[in-house]
Amino acid sequence: MDQKQKRISGPRFNIFDFLIILGIAVCLTAIIARFIFINNVKENIVFADVYFEIEDVSDVTANAFCIPNESIYLQSNDVRIGLLSIAKAEPMKVRTENESGALVEALHPVRKTVTGKAQIKGVWQEDGFLVDGTYLASVGQTLDIYTRYASCTITVTAIQEK
């Protein structure tokens, strides 16, 4: 009877223990690989001139984005990605009908369109420019950013290597 109790109460290794150990090993491998990838990307960081457009913003927001050398941050992770170089605000253009019913272009009385250039840090890869090594920025794509005074979504219109 004592031998039976010893066999039952002794440690056992089964398939579930193996799966747990395998899962931990896979997680540790993924963490190490990501750490190595991020360190390699950080070594290749350069600055690029990113031209952008912000449509349909208020006068206050437009003025906030026209401050030169203001720091820019990504909204998703609060990382500083660069500086605003130049920006200008103009009245937003809209299409409306004139008296004869034809579509004409007119300037909106209140809303603005901001165009400008920012120096943004990132990595050049085959796909394009990765902002901060993580977000792909190509012509036509949007980035959610903010400065000390305002936040908005910019549309990338051009990217030039410095």
List the helices and strands and how they pair.
Elements: H1 2-9, H2 15-43, E1 46-57, H3 59-64, E2 71-74, E3 80-97, E4 103-124, E5 129-131, E6 135-137, E7 142-146, E8 151-161
Antiparallel strand pairs: 1-4, 1-8, 2-3, 2-7, 3-4, 4-5, 5-6, 7-8
CATH topology of the largest domain: Elongation Factor Tu (Ef-tu), domain 3
The class by helix and strand makeup works out as alpha+beta
- Model regions low in confidence, pLDDT < 50 over at least 5 residues: none
Order of helices and strands: HHEHEEEEEEE
The first-to-last residue Cα distance is 81 Å
Described by strand count, sense and barrel closure, the largest sheet is: 6 strands, antiparallel, barrel
| Global outline | elongated
The average pLDDT is 85
Specify the number of helices.
Answer: 3
Strand order in space, largest sheet: 1-4-3-2-7-8
User: Helix proportion of residues, in percent?
Assistant: 25-40%
The first-level CATH class of the largest domain is given as Mainly Beta
What is the radius of gyration?
27 Å
How does this model look, in words?
The chain is α+β, with helices and mostly antiparallel strands and about 160 residues long. The chain has 2 domains: about 15-45; about 45-160, Elongation Factor Tu (Ef-tu), domain 3, CATH 2.40.30. Helices cover about 25% and strands about 50% of the residues. The protein has helices spanning about 1-10, 15-45, 60-65; strands at about 45-55, 70-75, 80-95, 105-125, 130, 135, 140-145, 150-160. The longest helix is centred in the first third of the chain and has 29 residues, at about 15-45.
